[in-house]
Design goal:
Number of strands of chain A: 8
Radius of gyration of chain B: 22 Å
Helix content of chain B: 10-25%
Family (chain A): Belongs to the ParA family. MinD subfamily.
Largest interface: A-B, 13 and 15 residues
Order of helices and strands of chain A: EHEHHHEEHEHEHHEHHEHH
Oligomer: heterodimer
InterPro entries (chain A): CobQ/CobB/MinD/ParA_Nub-bd_dom, MinD, MinD_FleN, P-loop_NTPase, ParA/MinD_ATPase
Radius of gyration of chain A: 18 Å
Pfam family, one (chain A): CbiA
Organism (chain A): Alteromonas gracilis
Number of helices of chain A: 12
Shape of chain B: elongated
Subunit structure (chain A): Interacts with MinC and FtsZ.
């Protein structure tokens, strides 16, 4: 049975699309047939991060409106086996997404794929609600700062009240993915710690992705960062994917690298 | 030098309200004596508010008051259909409370075992009528010799609304209202979330959001929480904001209640 996972956050710019790209690539690398759908109609980005922007012919909205078949719109990833991308439309807006239309597309995808990753737009309006409505699980991407945490809290509330599972009384499985984590800044109290965020949001931690130049570099090159095996961010995403698949993997990169006499800093575990 | 001779204070008092549905002196006295005989200690010398459902003539009203006093009840105030009776009410030294706000409860379960209730009623003075109602019912229920005598009024179950219990975190943007009763949250309440209850509010987690107890004017309502970190706390319309809440009970178990129109925060040991 296919699993629908929404990657959402409420707040913009926290790393939803980067995470969607990395996680869907990770799942495909692990041998699971995966499709990642860009729900950000009008602000299409996923194709850039996945490096397939020049191959977009038909998009999600075309499929919903039956102007193209799913087969025509799906883009097969060139690097990774088992991975497909369904891009958003750049010329339409979020109202183009209808419950019936989205459901029809998802139902068709469910026949072929094991994982359907929905990359949600920012905000809590139509687009974001449509992305999370059919979700079985949710990955809530949060940065370690107060406004992002509050928006994540808000989106968790919406998951509990406005998703199809919530309407049926079945909970959506929630995962916390903390991105742009900088242990040095946490130690100097410029950033919230993992524990702070976990305490406020009270959902299980899927992974902590360290702040890394590799992420920006990967985005600009159109290559999911998980493929950069030397980067700690790539490794952290790989760990998160393993956890998503049920493995128990210890969390890494939670502490600053201690250098010489900076060790005097308290708070080390 | 003059010492202070007195202090003015406000108080809330639990009292019996005698609803006068139909006043026909002989019949009324017979029924009332029978009722009092069912729990003499409870009724004797208890203060009484007369609630006139129908207008009475001055003579009838005088008779009614005399009758109550003869039966060892102490009428202290009158409400209801009092328009024509104002001079008589004055002459008799009673208070006209027809303009005051009331939250009456139904006091129906009567049987001899209730003598224990008198003290219960006194101890629950601050908690409004519903508490008296609860204690009398529990006394009635626990007594094994409640023979449900058909002679007096058949004991009825007190109309207690069950508390609304929420077992998951209340997220930012969510609002929960417990109409007509208490609200219990067994998890944390996020910033930007709002709890409303006609009764008390209990939070067995961190209260970071807003909590408004006694929203329909129940001044006896209280807010209890495991960790006090609230944005706003209100009881019966009186409220305090975050800055005021930040005191000795900050992030500690605490209760908040209304005392003389001021909200008091007290630690829970």
């Amino acid at each position: 049975m296919a699993k629908i996972i929404v990657v959402t956050s409420g707040k913009g710019g926290v790393g939803k699309t980067t995470s969607s790209a990395a996680i869907s690539t990770g799942l495909a690398l692990a041998g699971h047939k995966t499709v990642v759908i860009d729900f950000d109609v009008g602000l299409r980005n996923l194709d850039l991060i996945m490096g397939c922007e020049r191959r977009v012919v038909y998009d999600f909205v075309n499929v919903i409106n039956k102007e193209a078949s799913l087969k025509q719109a799906l883009i097969k990833d060139k690097r990774t086996e088992n991975l497909f991308i369904l891009p958003a439309s750049q010329t339409r807006d979020k109202d183009a997404l209808t419950v019936d239309g989205v459901q029809a597309v998802l139902d068709e995808l469910k026949k072929d794929f094991e994982f359907i990753i929905c990359d949600s737009p920012a905000g809590i309006e139509q687009g974001a609600q449509m992305a999370l409505y059919f979700a079985d699980e949710a990955i809530v991407v949060t940065n370690p700062e107060v406004s992002s945490v509050r928006d994540s809290d808000r989106i968790l509330g919406i998951l509990q009240s406005k998703s199809m599972r919530a309407e049926k009384g079945e909970p959506v499985k929630e995962h916390l993915l903390l991105t742009r984590y900088n242990p040095t800044r946490v130690e100097s109290a410029e950033m919230l710690s993992v524990a702070d965020v976990e305490e406020i949001l009270a959902i299980p931690l899927l992974g902590v992705i360290p702040e890394s130049e590799a992420v920006l570099k990967a985005s600009n090159q159109g290559q999911p960062v998980i493929l950069d095996e030397d980067a700690n961010a790539g490794q952290a995403y790989a760990d998160a994917v393993k956890r998503l698949l049920g493995e128990t993997v210890p969390h890494r990169f939670l502490e600053a690298e201690k250098k010489g006499f900076f060790k005097r800093l308290l708070g080390g575990k | 030098m003059t010492e202070t001779c007195f202090r003015m204070k406000g108080t809330t008092l639990t009292s019996i309200v005698l609803e006068v549905i139909d006043f026909e002196p002989d019949n009324f006295e017979a029924q009332l004596s029978q009722k009092i005989a069912s729990a003499p200690q409870f009724f004797t010398r208890s203060s009484l508010i007369l609630h006139l459902i129908k207008p009475l003539s001055a003579t009838e009203f005088e008779l009614l008051v005399a009758l109550c006093r003869r039966l060892q009840l102490q009428p202290m105030a009158v409400k209801g259909e009092v328009a024509e009776l104002k001079p008589t009410i004055n002459d008799l030294g009673l208070a006209d409370v027809s303009q005051s706000k009331f939250t009456d409860s139904v006091l129906r379960s009567q049987n001899p075992s209730q003598q224990a209730t008198a003290s219960n009623v006194n101890s629950s003075e601050n908690n409004g009528g519903s508490q008296a109602q609860q204690s009398s019912t529990s006394a009635a229920n626990t007594s094994s010799d409640s023979d449900a005598s058909p002679s007096a009024v058949t004991p009825l179950k007190a109309e207690i609304k069950p508390a609304k219990v929420i077992n998951r975190p209340v997220r930012s943007g969510q609002q929960v209202y417990a109409e007509g009763g208490d609200l219990v949250v067994t998890a944390s309440v996020s910033e930007g979330a709002e709890l409303l209850a006609d009764g008390n509010i209990h939070v067995y987690g961190t209260l970071r959001g807003r909590a408004l107890a006694g929203v329909k004017g129940n001044t006896g309502a209280r807010v209890f929480c495991q960790s006090l970190d609230a944005e706003l706390i209100s009881i019966a319309g009186q409220f305090i904001m975050h800055e005021t809440v930040k005191g000795e009970c900050w992030k500690k178990p605490a209760q908040v209640y209304l005392e003389e129109e001021t909200l008091r925060i007290e630690p829970l040991a």
